[in-house]
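Protein in question kept in full:
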Amino acid sequence: MTTLSDLKPGSSAKLVQIGGERGFRRRLMELGFLPGTSVRMIRCVKVGDLIELEIRGCHLSIRRSEARKLWVEPAR
């Protein structure tokens, strides 16, 4: 397993586990980050250290530090 922040742009993975504090986990789950969900890395933005993701047909941006708390399995 690896973290979401380790994915390369254009690659996909399946979300396995969400770490971090309870409020953080709840916020991400409300946005659709649920275990078993497919996530695709769109691009990395250097300003603000953001990562743009596609999840459930929506584009979302999260901080790289937040992405380090999300464990994924690379898609096959």
Notes: The two ends are 13 Å apart (CA to CA). The chain has a mean pLDDT of 93. The domain at 2-74 is CATH 2.30.30.90 (SH3 type barrels.). The chain is about 15% helix and 45% strand.
